[in-house]
Structure formats: structure tokens, C-alpha cells
Design brief:
3 domains; 7-stranded mixed beta sheet; 14 strands; about 15% strand; TIM Barrel; binds iron/sulfur cluster; Rossmann fold; alpha/beta; single chain; globular
Length: about 475
């Protein structure tokens, strides 16, 4: 299909400000903590492209607040031979506009998409949309390296593409990368690091991935399918070297240390924390955890190493719902996990999910009660969004729970795309809004949050500005 590819443009298309993680595809404005994370997946690909001798550029249009006019300028001026773009399920049709525009300007450009949706429906998308040439299936770093080294052909694992005779070719699945240390560090010099800031302190912030894969099988989550059901971790030494690079080369001191299940392997987390302490890095970071993969020792080490907040997928206050969604965790474990963190001096962020098929008024109330009892510093209530390829999506389709033919594009984590066996989509959407308002407006919660923020006028200003935008969003939608 192509000669040597010497210029690659990697983009988040100007189709809305979303988190474009495969397992989290929410609109930024719908989250309690409205943080814009840098597109580290694109930065990994940028690093691979450079290692292959190509010139790479990354543009995150939604984060920059720039639109299609800028994209047209970039395609015209940079004149890449390959365009790689990230999609979300909700924005796919708008994301594809990038391919149409790019092809109009340069009919020979290779347009290649990545993301959870394309990993599943890539074949169909390629058939229906001639403007897209190629789709990456699951992890794409090793695939891009081969594409840039050998060109596009059917021996490259992990792609779908349109062949010479217009037939869509689906190649063999690519095994997951075994040695994550072998990956180059994300090409942060290609990112505009100024765009990504801690919503609290306004300092530069980035994401460092410690591991990939998750053995759990929560029915709403594509993590295992996209990254494997086996946990693969980078060596703590390798992670610390990347942190050092961020601090010394890019002046970044705030981090989200992320992984599908970051705290799962106890010895790994503790070793990582020890190395962060030994490196003398004066950094501030948060991480995510399952409620059953934290204990006193891990919490102490997290705190010692500069972690200040831990986020948990608590999901529900109903054990029945936790069992139905195959969370593999209990309400009691959630209570214990949050208490452990509080005692260790860590702040906590709980994520709840409502609207899975078995949800009732009673299970919603149980979730509300649990949110009140846990009383975490931050919390989000997301409405279950049926990402294609998940068991939840299959159930929603089978039982006619999607609210319309266009539910995936119209719905979001704040506006139900589904109903449950007992509750309508409207009831779910309204319940979420009211529950969040009641939780935010608890006097002791406001007081505690302001006391925390009072440490610095800048933090107070940021908290107030986010609080007002949040309340506005909940009232006016
Ligand atoms: S624990 Fe569940 S929600 Fe979290 S990454 Fe694993 S499968 Fe996804």
C-alpha cells in the first residue's frame, strides 16, 4: 500500500474533549475531577516512529481547544504520509472526518485508527468508510514498528486494512508485549506538556503507566480484552527512570501512576515506592487501585513515596450488583480499603457505576448510602456505558436495553444510553444528578474540602472554579 513512511501525524481529533483510554471514554466535563490527561498512548507511538527514523508530530486538538481549521493547516503544512488517530465509541463518526479531510488534501495519505471500538468493529468500519485505510487491533507499538519498517502487508500481526482489490484483510492477532521495559519512553517532547495540569495545583501533570492487563472480568470493562487478562508490569527501575526523565527533562512533578490494576502486585508496588524514595524525587502523585488490592503496608509505602490520592472502583453499595457485574469484590472490602487509606493519610476518590441491567431503586439507594458512609474526598457516579465487546453490551443488546439506535453516540457516562430491567434511562440520568448534588452539598463535605484547599490561595481558587462548573453542569446538563 505504501512506500517508506517518513512523516507521521498522531492526533486526538477535534471531536470533543474525552478521555480516550480504552476503558475510560468519558467526557472530561462530566467528571468530578476535570483533568485533561496527556495522550500517552500517542506519545508511545511517537517514540516508536522516531526510533524507526520517521518524523513524528502529536496534536491533541481538544486539549488545545483548536478545531478542524488547524487540522487542515497541519495536514497541509506538515504533509504526513500517515495519519494515526484515536477514537472513542461516542465520537467515532466525527473522528472519521479527520480521514476525509486528510484524503481530500492528500489522497495518498494512509489513515489509521486506533481504539477499543475499532479493535472490535474495524472490519465493518473499513468496509463502510473508504476514507480509513487501516485499523490497529489492541496494543499498537510493536505493530507500528513493523509497519514503518516493512510497509503494510498481511504478515503484520494486529491490523485490519483494505488490500489492493478493496477486500478488507484481517491479519493474525498480535500477542501482547511481554517485556514492557523494551518499549521506549513516551515521546513527551512531542506533546505540549503545558496543556496538562493538575486541576488542584495547576502544576504540569502527566501519566506514567506502570502495568497493563487485568485478570478481573467486570462486565462493563474492556481492559482484559484490550490489554490481556494477565497483569504485565514494567520493572520498578524502568518506571523510576521515566519519572526521573519527566522531572529533570520536562519539569513535571505531578503524576498519575496508572495501570489497569496498579496496586495489584504487592511486592512490585512496594519496590516501586522504595525506589521513588531512594531516587529522592520530590513528586506528588495519585494512583488507582482495586478495593481488594490495598492493605496497611501498601498504603504506608504509597504515602512515603509521595502518593496523595488513591482512586477505587467501588462501583456499588449493593452486593447483589457487585456480584452481577462480576466485580469480584465486596462492599466490606470497599469500606476497609477507604479506611486504610484515610488512616495512612491518603485522600480517596471513589468511582461508582449505576444503570447495569439489574439496577433498581433499592440498589441505587444502597449505593447512595455507601457513598455517604465512605465519605471519600472525591467521587464520581458514572452511568454504565455499554462499550461494544463487553459482556454488558451483549446483555444490553440481547435484552433491548439500549434506548435508541443511536444510543452509543447520544449517551454518555452522565446521560444514560441504556435502561435497566426496572428503571428508565431518564430515571437513571436524573438520579445521578440528584445524588451527586446531594453528596456535593453536604455541609461537612464543603467545609472539609475548603479546609484542605485553604493551604494555598491557588488551590482554593481552582477548587471554587471547578465546583461552580460542576454544579452548573449538573443543573443545566
Ligand atoms: S478491575 Fe474491573 S474495572 Fe478495573 S480494570 Fe479490571 S476489569 Fe476493568
Amino acid at each position: 500500500m505504501a512506500g517508506a513512511i517518513k512523516k507521521v501525524l498522531l492526533i486526538n481529533p477535534p471531536s470533543g474533549l474525552y478521555r480516550r483510554d480504552d476503558r475510560c471514554q468519558s467526557r472530561v466535563e462530566e467528571q468530578t475531577v476535570q483533568v485533561i490527561f496527556p495522550p500517552i498512548d500517542l506519545a508511545y507511538l511517537g517514540a516508536v516512529a522516531e526510533e524507526c527514523g520517521a518524523e513524528a508530530r502529536i496534536v491533541d486538538y481538544p486539549a488545545e481547544g483548536s478545531g478542524w481549521e488547524n487540522f487542515i493547516l497541519d495536514i497541509t503544512r506538515f504533509n504526513p504520509q500517515m495519519l494515526i488517530f484515536d477514537v472513542t465509541t461516542a465520537t467515532l463518526s466525527r473522528d472519521l472526518l479527520a480521514c476525509r479531510i486528510a484524503k481530500e488534501i492528500n489522497p495518498d495519505i494512509i489513515t489509521a485508527g486506533k481504539g477499543d471500538y475499532l479493535s472490535i468493529y474495524g472490519e465493518q468500519v473499513l468496509r463502510e468508510h473508504r476514507e480509513i485505510d487501516l485499523v490497529f487491533v489492541r496494543e499498537s507499538e510493536a505493530t507500528l514498528r513493523e509497519l514503518l519498517t516493512h510497509g503494510i502487508d498481511e504478515n503484520i500481526q494486529g491490523i485490519m486494512f483494505r488490500g489492493e482489490d478493496e477486500q478488507v484483510i484481517v491479519t493474525e492477532k498480535r500477542p501482547f508485549i511481554k517485556d514492557l521495559d523494551a518499549l521506549p519512553f513516551p515521546a513527551r517532547h512531542l506533546l505540549n506538556n503545558e496543556l496538562y495540569r493538575s486541576p488542584e495545583t495547576n502544576n504540569k501533570l502527566t501519566v506514567v503507566y506502570g502495568n497493563r492487563g487485568c485478570p478481573a472480568k467486570c462486565i462493563f470493562c474492556p481492559a482484559g480484552r484490550m490489554s490481556g487478562y494477565k497483569l504485565r508490569s514494567r520493572s520498578p527501575e524502568n518506571v523510576v527512570r521515566e519519572l526521573e526523565e519527566c522531572v529533570h527533562k520536562f519539569g513535571i512533578t505531578e503524576f498519575l501512576l496508572h495501570g489497569d490494576t496498579f496496586t495489584m502486585r504487592k511486592s512490585w508496588v512496594i519496590e516501586l515506592c522504595k525506589r521513588i524514595v531512594d531516587a529522592g524525587l520530590n513528586i506528588r502523585w495519585g494512583c488507582n487501585s482495586r478495593v481488594d488490592t490495598i492493605d496497611e503496608e501498601r498504603a504506608e509505602w504509597l504515602r512515603n513515596a509521595g502518593c496523595w490520592v488513591v482512586a477505587f472502583g467501588v462501583e456499588s453499595g449493593s452486593q447483589l450488583m457487585l456480584d452481577k457485574m462480576k466485580k469480584g469484590a465486596t462492599v466490606e472490602q470497599a469500606k476497609k480499603a477507604v479506611n486504610i487509606c484515610k488512616r495512612a493519610g491518603l485522600r480517596t476518590h471513589a468511582f461508582y457505576i449505576i444503570g447495569l441491567p439489574w439496577e433498581t431503586a433499592e440498589t441505587l439507594q444502597q449505593t447512595f448510602e455507601l457513598a455517604r458512609e465512605l465519605d471519600t474526598d472525591f467521587f464520581d457516579i458514572n452511568i454504565a456505558y455499554p462499550l461494544p465487546g463487553t459482556e454488558f453490551f451483549e446483555i444490553a443488546k440481547r435484552d433491548n436495553l439500549l434506548v435508541s439506535a443511536n444510543a452509543l453516540a447520544d449517551g454518555s457516562y452522565a446521560r444514560a444510553a441504556v435502561r435497566t430491567y426496572e428503571l428508565s434511562a431518564e430515571e437513571l440520568t436524573l438520579w445521578r444528578r440528584q445524588a451527586l448534588m446531594r453528596l456535593y452539598l453536604r455541609p461537612h463535605y464543603i467545609f472539609r474540602t475548603l479546609m484542605y484547599a485553604a493551604e494555598s490561595p491557588r488551590v482554593i481558587k481552582n477548587y471554587l472554579s471547578y465546583a461552580s462548573s460542576r454544579i452548573r453542569h449538573l443543573i443545566f446538563g
